[in-house]
What does this fold into?
Amino acid sequence: VQLQASGGGLVQPGGSLRLSCAASGFTFSNYAMSWVRRAPGKDIEWVSTITGNGDSTNYAASVKARFTISKDSAKNTLYLQMNSLKPEDTAVYYCTKSKTPRGYAYDYRGQGTQVTVSS
It folds into this structure.
């Protein structure tokens, strides 16, 4: 299993970024996928999950209505569209592969991509 996140960078408050995660080594549509993040000095925080077939999504309260998770099974790619970014969104973002088609408990986590929100 390989998970490669990309798309991070430096953005001003109120700005947008789209993260991508290229997945390989497993049947992408058979497993839920998630984004988690780790802010400086803090524990890993769950951000969002999408089911294997893409029929359901869930979000942490801190990002709901600002972030959108999606997937393209033809490209084996997971996305996270982040709008209205805030300084507290600054973190390393990781994509994860769940153990099941619908849950968020994961067995693989890729290398992360840094998102910095600052003026």
